[in-house]
Amino acid sequence: MRTKRFYGLKRPKLRQSWNKYNLYNLSRADVPNFIARTNFQQKWTSKALTRSYHGETIKEKHWQRMFRRNIRSVVPLDHAQLARSDGHEQAEGRGSGLDSHPDKKPRAFPRTPYMNMIYAPTERRLDTAIFRALFASSTRQARQFVIHGDVKVNGKRMIYPGYLLNPGDMFQVEPERVMFATGAPKDARERRATRKLRQKQSQGSESESMPESLPSTQTPSSSVAEDNDSPESATESSAPTQEPQETLKQLLAQAKSMLTDSSSAELTAKRKRDLRAFKQTIQRTLSRHNTLSDSIDAQLLELSHKLDLNASSLAGAKPGPSRPSRNASKPNMETALLRKALEEARDNPIDASKSYATPWRPRPYMSAFAFVPRYLEIHHRICSAVYLRHPVARPGVGEVPTPYPAEINGLAFNWYLRRR
Questions:
Q1: pLDDT for 233 beyond 50
Q2: Cα torsion at 184, 185, 187, 190 (round to 10°)?
Q3: Is 399 exposed, middle or buried (0-12, 13-18, 19+ CB in 10 A)?
Q4: Distance (Å, rounded) from C-alpha 415 to C-alpha 116?
Q5: N or C: which end of the chain has fewer CB within 10 A?
Q6: What confidence score (pLDDT) does residue 191 get?
């Protein structure tokens, strides 16, 4: 019941989370009606709304100590105007500057949303920065990562979620934790496969822990001969030739499972067509008796060579005038499809031991929250980010992401202003 209260639908409170109920509350969020409320009630309601989103894990007294009435902002200057004049025209007209021509309207500058920067100090916190960098699905999950020791700041392990970052600090999260946080959860079939794998591993560990009490009655010569003729040595000697074929068989099984899965209705028609074409390509490849190489490039070279030989043999079997074939680009398409599938199987394989769905795919409802603030520089391949500078207010833009307008944040600012 705690989750339902945390993402309540009757009295919604917006949170820093990718939860689908939170996304629904964001879509229907509206400014409260302040017509029949006093100034105190307006400020208190605005404070309660904004604090539920910005730093809801921070205690109120701690936030009151973090609050600053000074707001960082920048004013961009017109470089063309600065290059055109040195400012002497401002001294004309008795020191107040000349009036512009009535037909020439003055340039309108957008207003600077200063009040949206009230919660800028919370953006320095390590847990909030991890959430903004798309390394966690919520600030609470980011706190869990930090407390469990999965986060490093400037190369050193940091276990304090409230650590305040300074400009230039680099923080890094364990890639497995990031893939778990941003990846789709497992469905019933994948959870069943994980349970079976754990049962097999537990049975294997129990069998290994049992003592070997059977006496050995073999002679050294017979044991050496058996070792030389054992199937393990045969498999080791033939491993380089069998590994690519096993990989292709696994890819074929994956394609069949994706097509016959109950969730295959979510696949598009183009994706199903590509999977069927890929399955046919793998079947034709496995039907040949020649061995394949280990590397993907060598496999593709051999496959393309075999496809060329197959096309030339078909042309020699049916003599006649040469005509342009409709399937002239089919080998190239099959080769590209096979390369893509082999690369995906190598980089993003199906692994039931992982805590997230494999092959990895983004979790649902993630695209609505997939944005990066200007004060962070992120490298998603190594799951690290750099806190470049403190967020500032610019004309028309406040760099602190907030779902509330400047009026609500202004009332909350006035609430904390009178208590400093």
A1: no
A2: 100
A3: buried
A4: 14
A5: N
A6: 84
